[in-house]
Amino acid sequence: MKNKKTIAYLALAAVCILWGTTYLALRVGVTQFPPFLFSFIRFILAGPILIVILLLMGKKFPARKLIFKQAIGGFLMCTLGIGIVGWAEVRVSSGVAAIICSMMPIWTFFINLVANREEKPTPVILIGLATGITGVILIFSEYLAEFYKPQYLGSIIAIFIANLSWAIGTFWTKKKNSGTDPFMNAGLQMLFGGIFLLPLSLAFDDYSSIRWSSEIVFALSYLTLIGSVAAYACYFYAVGNLPITIVSLYAYINPVIAVILGWLVLQEKLNIKIAEAILLTLLGVYLVNKGYQLKKLWQGQLLKS
C-alpha cells in the first residue's frame, strides 16, 4: 500500500511537469492546424496506443457498463476539457490558458460543495477563493484591449467552461471508477474523447488551412505520446490512489511552466504585473486546498474525540 502511494506521488509529479509543457505544444499546433482536428488526431492515436500496450501486457478489456462510463469521462475531460482549450488557444496565449486552468481545484471545491450539501466553506477557503479570483482579474487587466474583440472574450469564456468540465470529469472518474484499471480507463477516455471531437471538427474547422510541417508533426507527436499516453495515464493513476484535492495540486505548477515557456519560445507577454498575478492566483488555489484539507483534519479529530 505504501509503495502504491509512492508511485502515485511520482505519477503526480510527472503530471505537474509534463502538462505544464503541453500548453505550449498545443498552442503551436492549433495556430497552424485546424484546432479540433488537431486534438482529434491526438486522442484518436493516443487512446488506441495505450489500450494496445495494456492488452499486450495481459490487461483485460472492461465490461460494457464500465466502457459507457469511460465514454462520459472522455467527453467531459478530452472533448470539452482539452479540445475546447485547444480551440481557444488559437486566440488566447498558452500562458493565459494555463492560468485559467489553474483554477481547477477551486472548481473541484464547488463541485464537492454541491455533491455534499453538508460541506460548508471555512474562512480559509473563502479567503482563498477571493485571492484566486483577484489574481485572475489582475491577469486579465493586462489584456483589456483584447476584450474588445468578441473572439478573444469568447475564447476566455470557453476556457472557463472547459476547465469546469475537466473538474466535473475528474470528480466523475474518482466516484465511478473505483477499483478499475486506471490506465485502461485513460486509454478508453482518450479514444472516446477523440471520437466525440470529430463532429466538432466537421462543424467548425477550416480544412483548407491544413498545412503539414515539422512543427505540427513534432507538436502532435509530443502531445500524443508524452502529453496523452504518458501524462494522462499518470493522472488517472494518481486520481485512483490519492485524494482528489491532493491530485489537483498539479494545477499550481502547470501555469508557471506554461507562462515561462510561452515567453521563451513564443515571445508571449510576461511582466512583473503578470508574475504577481500568477503568484496571487496560485496562492488563492493553495489556500482553497489547504482550507479543505484542514477541514478534513479537524473533522477527523472531532470523530476521534
Write the layout of secondary structure elements.
Layout: H1 2-30, H2 35-56, H3 64-80, H4 83-88, H5 94-101, H6 104-115, H7 123-141, H8 150-176, H9 182-204, H10 214-241, H11 244-247, H12 250-266, H13 272-304
Helix pairs in contact: 1-5, 1-10, 1-12, 2-9, 2-10, 3-8, 3-9, 5-12, 6-8, 6-13, 7-13, 9-10, 12-13
Number of strands: 0
Q: Segments where pLDDT lies below 50 for 5+ residues?
A: none
Looking at the structure, what is the overall shape? globular
Number of helices: 13
Order of secondary-structure elements:
HHHHHHHHHHHHH
Given helix and strand content, the structural type is: mainly alpha
End-to-end separation: 27 Å
| Total individual domains | 1
- Binned strand content: under 5%
Helix content: over 70%
The largest sheet is: none
